[in-house]
Write a structure and sequence with these properties.
Length: about 325
């Protein structure tokens, strides 16, 4: 089991309120980061349910059917994610308003995904709050609900109300929530798990870091896992002073560049151990360690297990 989580935090219950024509992409980007966090932590950090107003089956915009686990009225938890997506005005009803207002007494927070913020605003849940919505609907939201301060942002967190623009932003938001609750190291590992080589080279800042300088530094680190650079070399390659890089990385990821670099190398080592049959010696070489013993010491310090024990537990 790895040690990068806050074990004091209780298991978070997240319910997703689905309406017909919801976005399956948005749903996956909401749930999969939680599933990955559980897997990587080796324990249940999150539980989730799919709910609907009547407890029945809902159908996505692509025709995927999801049978709700329960009615919204019978549920409560830490966060309710509201996900109508397409044709959302069909769901802008008195029944929906009542259900959402009642949910505020049973959930620690409410989050509107995609066009979900419209239903929240219509129910009076965003009055005098900052919020965003899918960018196709920003102008209409501003006009219809002048009491809401509408921002053009990927997502907005205003106390116990969260609003999010769409599927890609949903993934970023879930990463941030994971980082806030369980630490930036786990957030970094979850983000890295979902990155392909193409996405890593194209826009690492979209997943790994909020600040562009930090994202560029991480990009350099990822490109040099086998033959690690010094931190001054990394700072030089991105054209920033070392102290500036250290300050920004601590603020963004809660750790020094050296610590983040080591974690990236160990994340890659863990991936190779779980997804390939190459020897531990080869894994050590590919992640910048002089020998298997050096890798084992670093690996055990971070994950509280050895490379051989981890691989053995998967067989």
């Amino acid at each position: 089991m790895q040690r990068w989580t806050n074990h004091v935090a209780a298991v978070q219950q997240v319910d997703v309120l689905l309406f017909d024509d919801f976005s399956a992409h948005c749903l996956a980007n909401t749930v999969e980061p939680m599933r990955a966090a559980n897997t990587l932590a080796g324990q249940a950090l999150y539980r989730w349910r799919f709910v609907s107003l009547d407890g029945g089956t809902v159908v996505s915009s692509s025709g995927m059917e999801v049978t709700a686990h329960a009615r919204l009225a019978d549920c409560g938890g830490d966060l309710l994610a509201i996900m109508p997506s397409y044709h959302f005005l069909r769901h802008d009803t008195v029944e929906t308003h009542r259900a959402l207002r009642a949910a505020t007494t049973r959930y620690g927070g409410l989050a509107g995904f995609d066009t979900g913020p419209w239903l929240m605003a219509s129910a009076g849940l965003l009055d005098q709050r900052q919020a965003t919505i899918h960018w196709d609907e920003i102008a209409r939201l501003e006009e219809r609900f002048p009491e809401v301060e509408v921002l053009r942002a990927r997502y907005v967190r205003d106390d116990d109300r969260i609003t999010c623009t769409g599927a890609l932003a949903a993934f970023d938001l879930m990463l941030e929530l994971i980082g806030d609750t369980h630490g930036q190291a786990l957030r970094l590992e979850v983000a890295t798990l979902f990155m392909s080589a193409e996405s890593a080279g194209a826009a690492p800042e979209a997943m790994l870091a909020r600040h562009r300088v930090v994202a560029r530094a991480i990009g350099v680190m990822q490109a040099n896992l086998e033959t690690p650079l010094t931190i001054p070399e990394i700072a030089g390659r991105i054209g920033r002073p070392r102290k500036d890089l250290e300050t920004r990385m601590k603020a963004d990821l809660g750790a020094t560049p050296a610590t983040v670099y080591r974690r990236l190398r160990l994340i890659q080592a863990r991936k190779l151990l779980l997804e390939s049959d190459i020897s531990v010696s080869e894994v050590a070489m590919r992640t910048g360690y002089d020998n298997p013993s050096a890798l084992t010491r670093a690996f055990k310090s971070e994950f509280a297990t050895t490379p051989r024990a981890l691989r053995g537990s998967q067989r």
